């Protein structure tokens, strides 16, 4: 497989669907917003975008399977599976704020081989492929070289449905409030990871995320020279619902704080 060529084809699909999503933002009405669960919203825009993406990807690799947030296709591929979030940051989209993004990863035999994140409001496409480097709109990107925690900017997401670890989360948050330049909560995990890859954030951590929120972003961070792991230091960060992605110099320091407060202790 020529992953570089496939990545370029995926970028074209993401760009087209991004235009569709953007064109709908002014048109969306409160009747269009459905609730999938507590604080978890979806619109016809998410669903139509996912259909358009799957239609395009099926042409690139016939017989591939899909793990897609809105469940448009549940086809399982024997070798190739796409992991897709057609609109990451739906709450931002609904409220008319940025960022919100399309996230597409391809796995070959359970190993990610390419990732594309198109952040729609700034029209920024972050991408990487196996054996290649990481890019933002045709320019190579790399994670931050910062080695001083007090000069770092950290991103996270607040719990929005699983509040069982809220106190431990707040302890972690307080540590980073005191010890870093700042903490940001953008509301789109894919964008957070893309920004770590581009060196804008030194680190991102969050739990209760799903594979489509993180698969592409984790891969792009690694290709940009960053370190990605779960809260125990293992590699179960796509399906394991917890992720830390950091620039190399601060990776151990940040991991130790998150691990101490938030890792499962059983
Ligand atoms: P989504 O928009 O695709 O659902 C928060 O960092 C992550 O959790 C986002 O990637 C977002 O992805 C998801 N999420 C779902 N509901 C949310 C909510 N009410 N607030 C924030 N994030 C939400
Ligand atoms: Ca989504």
Tell me about this structure.
This protein has 266 residues and is an alpha+beta fold. The protein has 2 domains: 3-141, Fructose-1,6-Bisphosphatase, Chain A, domain 1 (2-Layer Sandwich); 149-262, D-Maltodextrin-Binding Protein, domain 2, CATH 3.40.190. 35% of the residues lie in helices and 26% in strands. It has 7 helices and 14 strands. Strands 3-4-5-6-7-8-9 form a 7-stranded mixed β-sheet, sandwiched between helices. The chain has a 5-stranded mixed β-sheet with strand order 11-10-12-14-13, sandwiched between helices. A hairpin with a 4-residue loop joins strand 7 (124-129) and strand 8. The longest helix is centred in the N-terminal third of the chain and has 22 residues, at 3-24. It binds adenosine-2'-monophosphate and calcium ion. Adenosine-2'-monophosphate binds at residues 39-40, 85, 88-91, 157, 160, 187-189, 206, 213. The site of adenosine-2'-monophosphate (2AM) has 14 residues, from strand 4 and helix 3.
């Amino acid at each position: 497989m020529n992953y570089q060529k496939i990545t370029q084809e995926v970028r074209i699909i993401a760009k087209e669907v991004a235009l569709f999503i953007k064109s709908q933002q002014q048109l969306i009405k409160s009747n269009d917003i459905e609730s999938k669960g507590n604080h978890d919203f979806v619109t016809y825009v998410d669903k139509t975008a996912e259909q358009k993406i799957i239609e395009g990807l099926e042409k690139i690799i016939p017989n591939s399977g899909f793990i897609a947030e809105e469940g448009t296709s549940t086809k399982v591929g024997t070798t190739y599976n796409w992991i897709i979030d057609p609109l990451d940051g739906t709450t931002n989209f609904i409220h008319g704020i940025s960022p919100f993004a399309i996230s597409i990863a391809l796995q070959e035999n359970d190993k990610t081989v390419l990732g594309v994140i198109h952040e729609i409001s700034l029209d920024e496409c972050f991408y990487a492929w196996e054996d290649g480097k990481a890019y933002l709109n045709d320019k190579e990107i790399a994670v931050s070289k910062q080695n001083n925690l007090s000069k770092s900017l950290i991103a996270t997401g607040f719990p929005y449905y699983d509040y069982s670890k809220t106190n431990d989360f707040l302890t972690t948050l307080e540590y980073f409030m005191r010890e870093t330049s700042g903490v940001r909560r953008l509301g789109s995990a894919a964008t957070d990871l893309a920004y770590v890859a581009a060196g804008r954030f030194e680190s991102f951590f969050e739990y209760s995320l799903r594979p489509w929120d993180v698969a592409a972003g984790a891969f792009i961070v690694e290709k940009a020279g960053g370190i990605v792991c779960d809260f125990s230091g293992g590699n179960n960060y796509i399906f394991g619902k917890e992720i830390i992605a950091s620039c190399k110099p601060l990776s151990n320091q940040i991991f130790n704080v998150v691990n101490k407060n938030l890792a499962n202790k059983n």
